[in-house]
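STRUCTURE:
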């Protein structure tokens, strides 16, 4: 795996984290227990920071970045991802905050200063434009993403199941 320093910051990973050899993590990144970073993920914690919680998986080809401080936004926008989050293949997350128990569908884009509350599904290919809040308990689809309907109980349960499935998979990879 490629863990790279940027200035005086380097990625900090819980010992139980799996990072694929082809992933690149740069700078101020912290990843919590039992999380996984899959092939070809690029995560740059250079002009702000990235925090990833426990039991979260970031799947193949996803890009994680953030927004630097500016006159309009003195703190910039870090990238914060909670616990039990599944980030699908080729997702772009940029300077946003994701709560807990979220599924971000394949190819979705979540932009600066978006807040995704707990227990949300973002459909494949969705575009969440800047400065939006996605309320807890709903499915969001489209471009721009719109609230489609409340999540079913089965969908809510799946959010945790999906995260646990990836914990088991990363354990298989770590065991060789």
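SEQUENCE:
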């Amino acid at each position: 795996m490629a863990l790279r320093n940027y200035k005086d910051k380097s990625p900090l990973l819980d010992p139980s984290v799996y990072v694929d050899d082809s992933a690149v993590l740069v700078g101020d990144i912290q990843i919590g227990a039992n999380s996984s970073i899959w092939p070809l993920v690029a995560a740059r914690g250079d002009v702000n920071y990235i925090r990833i919680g426990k039991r979260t998986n970031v799947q193949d080809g996803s890009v994680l970045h953030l927004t630097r401080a500016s006159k309009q936004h003195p703190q910039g926008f870090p990238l914060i991802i909670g616990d039990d989050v599944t980030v699908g293949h080729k997702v772009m997350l940029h300077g946003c905050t994701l709560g807990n128990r979220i599924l971000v569908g394949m190819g979705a884009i979540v932009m600066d200063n978006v807040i995704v509350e707990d227990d949300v599904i973002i459909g494949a290919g969705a575009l969440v434009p800047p400065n939006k809040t996605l309320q807890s308990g709903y499915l969001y689809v489209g471009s721009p993403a719109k609230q489609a309907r409340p999540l079913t109980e089965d969908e809510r349960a799946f959010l945790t199941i999906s995260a646990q499935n990836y914990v088991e998979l990363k354990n298989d990879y770590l065991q060789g």
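REMARK: The mean pLDDT is 97.
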